[in-house]
Amino acid sequence: MKKPWDGIIPPHEQEAYRAAGFGRASGLGKRPCLLIIDVQYRTVGTQPKPFMEAIKEFPTACGQVGWDAVRQIARLLALFRQKGWPVIYPYVSPKESFDKGRLADKVPALMTVARRGYDFVAEIAPEGNDVLLPKKHPSAFFGTPLASYLIERAVDTLVVTGCTTSGCVRGSVVDGFAYNFRALVPHDAVYDRSQVSHAVNLFDMSEKYADVMSTDEALAALKAIDRAAA
Questions:
Q1: Top-level CATH class of 30-225?
Q2: How far apart are CA 44 and CA 51, in angstroms?
């Protein structure tokens, strides 16, 4: 089956990873948690548009690819709601003058996003039992109580969705890996403003830190979990 990085990562490099023993599937545990990272209007726009049109509304928007991912996230969210599995929303709160940090130095446009941009996308908005997790840095773990929430719920597997693939998704996957959580990244339920960066980071996560598959494949794997046996 074609992977998102095929045509970008040369075959001989993929073969080199195989020869060195990278890229084996780690599989799912029995108690998954869905992370929906930064799926706010500031990252997709208030309606589907091509990238260059979307950034006229919010300079941090990724455009149509974000909305394509939202549709896939909604499918995963529906399953988690049905199963009663935990859902956590790591998100960026509105930036204040005292809250610039180095990312604002690198990307000053972050300080200009209108308040409306920080609202959660309605199609996959949080509900009463979900955990809202404000964060200041790319990783959902850094400076947050995420690990504590996961331990309390005996979570063993993170299903990581949202954006950006190369930033907050990758940072959260790598830190989750460091805490010994299993990670599943549905490649069509994450998004980035650069398709090359999206593909390269998916490849790297697949080789080292996570199982990367389509949402269809992820749903099939998740539906096979018998959580009652955990």
A1: alpha beta
A2: 9
3-state secondary structure (DSSP) of residue 216? helix
Q: Whole-number mean pLDDT of the chain?
A: 94
pLDDT for 230 equals 46
Q: Please confirm, yes or no, whether 168 is among the known catalytic residues.
A: yes
Counting beta carbons within 10 angstroms of the beta carbon of residue 105, is it exposed (0 to 12), middle (13 to 18) or buried (19 or more)?
A: exposed
Domain range annotation of the chain: 30-225
Tokens of 145: 């109580």
pTM: 0.95
Sign of CA dihedral 73, 75, 80, 81: positive
* d(C-alpha 28, C-alpha 185), whole Å: 11
d(CA 38, CA 44): 10
Annotated catalytic residue within 33, 62, 163, 168: 168
Q: Which residues of the chain have pLDDT under 50?
A: 227-230
